[in-house]
Specification:
Distance between the termini: 74 Å
Number of domains: 2
CATH architecture of the largest domain: 3-Layer(aba) Sandwich
Bound molecules: guanosine-5'-triphosphate, magnesium ion
Strand order of the largest sheet: 2-3-1-4-5-6
Low-confidence stretches: 298-311, 381-406, 412-417
Helix content: 40-55%
CATH class of the largest domain: Alpha Beta
Mean pLDDT: 84
Shape: elongated
Structural class: alpha/beta
Amino acid sequence: MAGPGSSFAARRKAVKKGVQFTLLVVGQSGTGRTTFVNTLCETPVIAHKAPVAPEMAHLEDGIKINPVNVELEEDGVRISLTVVDTPGFGDQIDNEFTFNEIMGYLERQYDDILAEESRIKRNPRFRDNRVHALLYFITPTGHALRELDIELMRRLSPRVNVIPVIGKSDTLTPSELQGFKRRVMEDIEHYSIPVYNFPYDAEEDDEETIQDNSELRALMPFAIVGSEDEVEVNGEPIRARRYPWGLVEVDNPQHSDFQRLRNALLSTHLTDLKEITHDHLYEMYRTEKLSRSMVGDAGGPDYSADQDGSVLPEDMATQSVRLKEDQLRREEQQLRDLELRSQRELAEKRQELLAREEVLRNLEARLAQAQTSGTPPPQQQQQLSMSQHGAMHPNLTPGGYAAEEQQHLHNGMQQQH
Ligand SMILES: Nc1nc2c(ncn2[C@@H]2O[C@H](COP(=O)(O)OP(=O)(O)OP(=O)(O)O)[C@@H](O)[C@H]2O)c(=O)[nH]1
Ligand SMILES: [Mg+2]
């Protein structure tokens, strides 16, 4: 379980190498996703949506999935952060397509890893793009979760660590916010949505970790306030939203949970989110995918599921070996093709070399003949006159061959003899 007490060795390694982290932000249009991302990265990494002309307002744009990379440094650790924004989510009358698009994106990243793992020769430039956390921006209605929110979180939480947040939380008064947070958590519990809830083990974990995680859990869903503007307070620039009645400070824990969430995502819980993604969510996907391909594979051996529909671990292992064997066979074939191609090219080169040797031999014979008769051959005469006019390439020798090439051919002949 993560927290301040999590592995010192892992941290030392992270400081040295830097870490990669991927965050997906989902929420309806106008919930403050772009402002949040730019506040988180302290730089405008995502552009705001351009205003839509009235005559276009009725058109559905569909969802876009836009990843951006940004390099950050947190407590001396370099973080290569990928933020994936999903403009257009929830804007449709029927949102089925947008759910599937996001799910497809998450699963494609798992598929890429699965394919890479079964390769014999790893691609050194392979990039693991699995999403480690999904921030779901709940619209600050002040009521409770809507069907759209429940459906999205329920469907996606088996594939990604879902962290619910309330966007633009400064639109609610403190008591409204408390009531809203409570109702959202009641809904999450009622519908048994397995969101990321800062897990800890009361028996195993140290006190500090338990304390930190239970405090974060109590803050859920995090109240977010974002601002790309800075305001000067007592001569210090602070990030805040200015209203006629005062300031809402982004980093002030009395005003928003932004700082606690940022710290959890990029520092204290980054490793835990990555480990859960790899050890649990990806493993689950992998098992499901392999068992699906076993059941659907009519040509192969009978890997049929157990009576209760589950697949036996031995079958899983066999399937895994079989996939590796297939991969091996494919790579062997590719190697054989490569060898054949190289042999063919070698034979062609040898032919070429022999032809050139022939030309060279003729040339040498003609030169020898010309020397004994005392007159240069006609070709040489012509080129010598070009040389006098400065038009001949300095590397050209009689016969039109480059000097280097002729030397090369000569060496080749000597080797052959
Ligand atoms: N009150 C308040 N307004 C905010 C906050 N964050 C953003 N806004 C404002 O809300 C509007 C929409 O913010 P965006 O960050 O563009 O929202 P978005 O979710 O990216 O919207 P789309 O890109 O259209 O999907 C802008 O006018 C922001 O200035 C916040 O924390 N509180
Ligand atoms: Mg936006």
